[in-house]
């Protein structure tokens, strides 16, 4: 079945079909080049958040990106944010140091750096926005004063 949600066409499938689609789309993402770029102080750097980077972040900060995810609380920690950026850059710019990376951005660049890191992380996630699992309620907008149930 196909349904329109917020003007977008969405396929409604069983949970088994959704799992198969997710597996197929994950396989497709591995065929892509999981790189993105970031412009810091007028220079373009290549970013890649691979397993090497995830292990480096864990070793340096104790923060496990795979289990904890990419939450706002974590990236408000300058040690974690700096390590995320450093380890995402080091694969393609091996001469960089943590100190040099920390000096490449300031507080006013915070939102931009977060957005670039989010893009680097999202490159590994399959796009499932066009699929809805049967029986799962659509996200409903709740107006002020209304009961969400």
Description of the molecule:
- By secondary structure, the protein is α+β, with helices and mostly antiparallel strands.
- The protein folds into two domains: 2-30 and 128-133, no CATH class; 36-122, no CATH class.
- Helix content is 44%, strand content 15%.
- The chain has seven helices and five strands, in the order E-E-H-E-E-H-H-H-H-H-H-E.
- It has helices spanning 15-29, 51-61, 65-68, 72-75, 78-90, 98-102, 110-122, and strands at 2-5, 8-13, 36-40, 43-47, 131-133.
- It has a three-stranded mixed beta sheet.
- The radius of gyration is 19 Å and the shape is elongated.
- It starts with a strand and ends in a 16-residue tail after the last strand.
- The mean pLDDT is 78.
Largest sheet: 3 strands, mixed
Q: Assess the beta-strand content as a share of residues.
A: 15-25%
Secondary structural class: alpha+beta
Which strand order does the major sheet show? 1-2-5
Low-confidence stretches: none
Distance between the termini: 26 Å
Number of domains: 2
Rg over alpha carbons: 19 Å
For this structure, the quaternary state is single chain
Number of strands: 5
The number of helices is 7
Which word captures the global form?
A: elongated
Q: Secondary-structure element order, as H and E?
A: EEHEEHHHHHHE
Mean pLDDT: 78
Percent in helix: 40-55%
Topology (SSEs and partners):
Layout: E1 2-5, E2 8-13, H1 15-29, E3 36-40, E4 43-47, H2 51-61, H3 65-68, H4 72-75, H5 78-90, H6 98-102, H7 110-122, E5 131-133
Parallel strand pairs: 2-5
Antiparallel strand pairs: 1-2, 3-4
Helix pairs in contact: 2-5, 5-7
